[in-house]
Amino acid sequence: MRVHRCTRRAALFLTIIGMAAASLLGGWAPALASEPERQIVPSPLPPLPPARHTLPAAEVLIDAGHGGIDSGTHWGDVLEKDINLAISRKLYLVLRGRGIQAVLNRTGDYALSDDNRWQRASRHNRDLSQRKGLSDMIEPELFVSVHVNWSKRGNNRGPIVIHQNEGRSALLGSFIQDGLNRQQNSRRLPMPSKKYFVLSRVKMPSVIVETGFLSDPRDREMLVSSRGQSRIAIAIADGILAYFCVSPA
Q1: Model pTM?
Q2: Are 200 and 236 contacting, i.e. CB atoms less than 8 angstroms apart?
């Protein structure tokens, strides 16, 4: 698109230069009385193609959970939304570094519901609808939602990957769960579920990654540290890469 537009502009520029040169030459060159006056008429330019909305191409859409007024779970002033965003940013960089096209649905601390101004629904429902709507527009191959868990029971810790009740999603969930299990020395199994909006409404293979329990001291120490967040992002990326290696194109 950009090349065609530049080519047309260059052609028009050369035409204008040619007309200006002819006009200057006519000021001093001897004119033949019998020669009729010539008019230089530029040939019409072909029509421009219709404009299209520019959307990023993506193999993986990273859904950084919560944001803005929606802080998710918390431990004192430690907020889930901040941990989700930090891990999601690191995951984006790891995937891009491995040659996988990835897109983040939020890059700062804001609520996606603020972008949804056409629905008369609760803020929560507008937020969820916006996450699904972005996946519909970009049409990635995978949708990975990053979250942090919480439990009133003190012995709950470790990662949990929740997937759609569908083969490709289950495969993706198994690979990510395995990567996180090895990273956190855990033996948890991925879980299918239909009760989560992004799993029931998003069309492509999708998973929710509960990276750890903010309520557990050991998990919390990992979740709030930059090194721990990086290790989590690498484990998730390992699972995504393993999925792409075995899944049908």
Answers
A1: 0.72
A2: no
